[in-house]
Design goal:
The structure holds three protein chains of three kinds. Chain A has 17 helices and no strands. By secondary structure, chain A is an all-alpha fold. Chain B has two domains: about 140 residues, Immunoglobulin-like (Sandwich); about 60 residues. Chain B is built from five helices and seven strands, in the order αβββββββαααα. In chain B, strand 3 and strand 4 form a beta hairpin. The N terminus and C terminus of chain B are likely disordered. Chain C is of the alpha+beta class. Chain C contains seven helices and twelve strands. Chain C is globular, with a radius of gyration of 23 Å. The chains are: A mainly alpha, B alpha+beta, C alpha+beta. The interface between A and B is large, with 46 and 39 residues.
């Protein structure tokens, strides 16, 4: 392996705390713009509350649509963020250090946005307390509720624990200034003083959570798929659905991590710490998941198309050659093949190419979620005309509002907390230095390892 | 198994005794140009091949005769059962044709135990006046035609629910346990603020890092 | 050395937590709603069912109208909906579809708050006072028998009765509605609105308990009637065990 360059801890600290400095006009302009989009979504939701779900574009032959697709898409993105961080942590990939914080925070905020749609899609949101008060355990929605709440707890812990040493650093810096901010840091830093015992406890806890969060995320997204699969409708009635959803979530999640990392790298000039290397490795991860997702898509279509079950054929037909075919092939091309090429070809494998590929993937995967939901719902089960789901300004505003909330929350969160894991980066730099001292031994051992 | 058979046999025997032999309310009808007919209806327990009554089953025998007592052959008799379905109704049970002795027989299965009120009706034929007769029978047992079937794999489903609940509870306990344990351990281990600040100023990071390294050596163990 | 000590502690810690979870945590959850109660009470006086005699149906949709008038429904809510089924010879035949009041209702299982239930007489009902409007039941119903109140439903005249599962009038915005087999009528000895409104006498309300069915004019012994006319249930292969029986007619196909 190449010997990575690890910047000095002072430089890292300075860079990671850059967002905490008073922000310029551009920051506040962007924040205001995002807040305006969020507010517009809020207004649209109030309108929907008073007028009924009909104004969002629903009908009896299109009873699920954009909100359900959003729910899956946002929670999927969150899943990718948490898994990237957890897997890289467990495999001790050293290049992870500058990007784990960003992906963990993204995981929490996109999960919150996804959970929002679980409420927004209800006809009677004010009765959601009944899910806790009188749940019926046989319902896949109750499974969803339990799974997502569990996952939320896990992602928050997963974000918080590695943050503790960095918060302690901030506490020490803000001690002189005092104020509310210092009190917040002091409360959250838990007497952290980088003592051996503290290091040991924290390291153990982070490892446990990183181990737990991987199967947890897999289960959460499987459960989400079962809300569709257990209804037995043509197009959803598929045993492949759970892993299919899991891979979809990972795929779109890694793409979102790329976008978030690239955006913060650009906005706060973190080029020295988040290199092309990080983005390219994430790009390779996305590439592998791209192929995996295309494989799953093909597998599903092959068995359905080969068997030609009379109930499934109309749905399949509408997707491959019928009214939904333009969208489907747009997804295959824009969300599958073009990102694949962009990451594969050496010419486009730069930062812009990878970011464009990631944007295509996120948009394409959102489209794919709509394509999972809508044709199956619109397909007439007995006889008669196809239904449809046509998004309206209400549902589009709410969707955009929730999407804008994620970057806004990230921007504000990193006004308070370091954008990179300073402590962890220091640790890894130290490790690298130790390795460099023992270079001959390490080299022999690495050669001895199978690949 | 045998006991149960015996029990059903016994109760069926009782039912036969109860099966009222209150036969034949015959009525005369005299219309212009038609012959009056007589209809008699009886409900008897049905016997199986060993001569034992089959619980819940009756054989309805309707005897159709002319006024002079001669049986009427090959005539349609309709059978009805009185039911309470949004008010009293005569529910059509079935049809049988009379034989050479004037008897039309129909197997009747009682949906519920209790009093069975039955009717036979001769709708009339060219030259013969319509006729009706009723009878009733008390049955100890019925044969419900539709029984609630158990839901397949119901027990597996309950087991799965319990298992899933246990799993979820375990995950919550682990997550919260890790959080609580970390928070308490970090707070307990942390020195008071003054001492901490002093240490941060005086000691080099390396000495602490070195201490941490000997405990956990992250990376070293995995990569070598 | 130190490393192994940490790992051991952690493992012991996890084991203890898991055991504790097994012992205590699930207890409060194991309630009555653990598995959806899908069977009606067999001791009830009636077990309602329904028969559609397709030999008689001419597709006039009077049943739909009668139902909508009875329950003050919006025009697009067709709790009994007359589908036009195409047969192999290219002709279309009418087929009224109401709620099948399944013995194993898929809609009931998936309801997260237990708002859908089967009453003692076997009728599947929706409690619009507790329905959260998630529409999972609509996804689960293979008969498209459920309708959502997307807008404020049409106004209904003031009645003495409040809206309740047995008489959901007026419908509540943001909740799901469906055929209730007119339990408000059958409780008071009246025929369901669609049976009453069918000029062809093709619809029968049936009682599995007394084994009889009536269309208001003629009454039949249900089991004999179904057997002798080769009655079938819609999409038997799904295992939903509907309580609505169809007597085939017009040569139309019912299972496809």
């Amino acid at each position: 392996m190449l010997k990575p360059e690890f910047p000095s801890s002072d430089a890292v600290t300075a860079a990671a705390l850059r967002p905490l400095a008073p922000s310029g006009r551009r920051f506040w302009a962007l924040a205001a713009a995002l807040a305006a989009v969020v507010a517009a979504g809020g207004v649209a939701y109030v309108y929907q509350l008073f007028s009924g779900l009909g104004v969002a574009g629903y009908s009896d032959h299109g009873f699920w649509g954009i909100y359900e697709a959003n729910l899956v898409a946002f929670i999927g993105v969150s899943y990718g963020g948490a898994l990237v961080s957890a897997i890289l942590r467990l495999t001790q990939a050293r290049w992870r250090a500058p990007i784990t914080r960003l992906s963990e925070a993204m995981a929490v905020f996109s999960l919150l946005a996804g959970m929002l749609f679980a409420v927004i899609h209800l006809g009677r949101p004010e009765r959601i307390w009944r899910l806790v008060a009188s749940p019926q355990i046989s319902s896949p929605l109750v499974w969803d509720f339990v799974a997502v709440m569990t996952y939320l707890l896990a992602t928050v812990i997963f974000l918080y624990l590695p943050l503790i040493p960095d918060i302690a650093l901030l506490r020490d810096r803000f001690e002189r200034a005092g104020g509310l901010r210092f009190k917040l840091y002091r409360a959250l830093a838990l007497n952290w003083a980088d003592l051996p015992r503290q290091h040991q406890v924290l390291h153990a806890s982070v490892s446990v959570i990183a181990v737990i969060i991987i199967p947890l995320a897999v289960i959460v997204h499987s459960v989400l798929s079962w809300a569709f699969a257990v209804t037995g409708r043509p197009g959803w009635d598929s045993t492949i659905f759970a892993p299919y959803f899991v891979v979809a979530a990972l795929y779109s999640g890694v793409a979102t991590v790329i976008i978030v990392v690239a955006a913060f790298r650009w906005a706060y000039r973190l080029h020295d710490y988040i290199g092309l290397k990080q983005l390219r490795y994430l790009g390779y991860l996305m590439l592998a998941l791209d192929l995996l997702y295309l494989y799953f898509t093909f597998t599903e279509l092959l068995t359905e198309g080969y068997v030609m079950n009379a109930e499934v054929v109309p749905v399949l037909e509408s997707m491959l050659v019928g009214q939904y075919a333009p969208y489907f092939w747009l997804f295959i091309l824009g969300g599958g093949i073009v990102p694949l090429l962009l990451v594969c070809l050496p010419k486009t494998r730069g930062v812009p190419g990878i970011v464009v590929a990631a944007i295509l993937v996120v948009a394409g995967m959102w489209l794919k979620r709509l394509l999972i939901v809508v044709p199956t719902v619109a397909h007439p089960l007995i006889a008669g005309a196809w239904g449809s789901f046509q998004p309206t300004w209400v549902s589009m505003s709410i969707t955009l509002g929730a999407a804008a909330a994620i970057p806004l929350l990230l921007m504000l969160f990193f006004k308070l907390f370091p954008v990179m894991a300073i402590y962890e980066m220091g640790e890894i730099a130290e490790e690298a230095r130790q390795d460099a001292l023992r270079l001959p031994v390490t080299a022999i051992n690495q050669e001895g390892l199978p690949s | 198994m045998n006991l149960k058979l015996l029990a059903t046999w016994a109760s069926a025997a009782l039912a036969v005794c109860a099966a009222a032999a209150s036969p034949a309310v015959a009525q005369q009808a005299t219309d212009q140009g038609t012959t009056a007919t007589t209809l008699a209806l009886s409900a008897d327990a049905r016997m199986d091949s060993r001569g034992r009554p089959v619980p819940g089953q009756l054989v309805l025998n309707a005897t159709l005769t002319q006024a002079d007592g001669k049986p009427l052959n090959n005539r349609v008799i309709n059978f009805y059962q009185q039911v309470d379905l949004l008010g009293p109704h005569d529910a059509f049970v079935g049809t049988a044709n009379t034989d050479a002795t004037g008897v039309a027989a129909l197997l009747y299965e009682a949906p519920q135990p209790g009093l069975q009120q039955l009717k036979a009706r001769f709708p009339g034929a060219p030259g013969y006046a319509p006729q009706e007769a009723g009878t009733s029978a008390q049955l100890k047992e019925g044969i419900p035609p539709f029984q609630a079937e158990p839901i397949p794999l119901g027990k597996v489903a309950s087991g799965l629910s319990v298992g899933a609940l246990l799993l979820v509870s375990a995950v919550w306990l682990v997550l919260l346990g890790v959080l609580v344990r970390t928070v308490t351990a970090l707070r307990a281990a942390g020195a008071p603020a003054r001492e901490r600040r002093a240490r941060a100023r005086s000691t080099e990071n390396i000495s602490q890092r070195g201490g941490a390294e000997t405990i956990s050596q992250p990376g070293g163990e995995v990569s070598t | 050395m130190a490393k192994s000590r940490v790992a051991l502690t952690r493992r012991r810690f996890l084991t203890a937590l898991t055991l504790a979870a097994g012992g205590t945590a699930a207890a409060p959850f194991v309630g009555e709603r653990l598995v959806a109660a899908t069977s009606a009470a067999p001791e009830a006086k009636h077990q309602w069912a329904f028969v559609v005699d397709l030999r008689k149906c001419d597709g006039c949709e009077h049943c739909t109208k009668a139902c909508q008038d009875e329950h003050h429904l919006a025009k697009d809510q067709k709790w009994i909906n007359v589908y036009r089924i195409s047969s192999a010879d290219g002709e279309t035949h009418p087929m009224p579809r109401l709620c099948m009041h399944c013995e194993n209702p898929p809609c009931l299982k998936v309801c997260p708050v237990g708002a859908t239930f089967k009453n003692a007489e076997g009728v599947v009902l929706v409690n619009q006072q507790t329905c959260i409007g998630c529409r999972t039941c609509m996804a689960a119903c293979p008969y498209e028998a459920r309708y959502f109140n997307w807008q404020e439903p049409p106004p209904a005249p003031k009645t003495l009765m409040p809206s309740m599962p047995e008489f959901p009038v007026p419908q509540l915005k943001g909740t799901v509605g469906k055929c209730i087999l007119c339990v408000h009528n059958t409780q008071t000895g009246k025929l369901p609105a669609c049976v009453e409104g069918c000029p062809m006498e093709a619809l029968y309300i049936a009682d599995l308990k007394s084994d009889a069915a009536t269309n208001g004019r003629e009454t039949v012994k249900l089991s004999t009637f179904l057997r002798e006319n080769d009655a079938i249930r819609f999409r038997e292969e799904l295992g939903t065990r509907p309580r609505v029986y169809y007597i085939p007619g017009h040569g139309q196909k019912l299972i496809f």
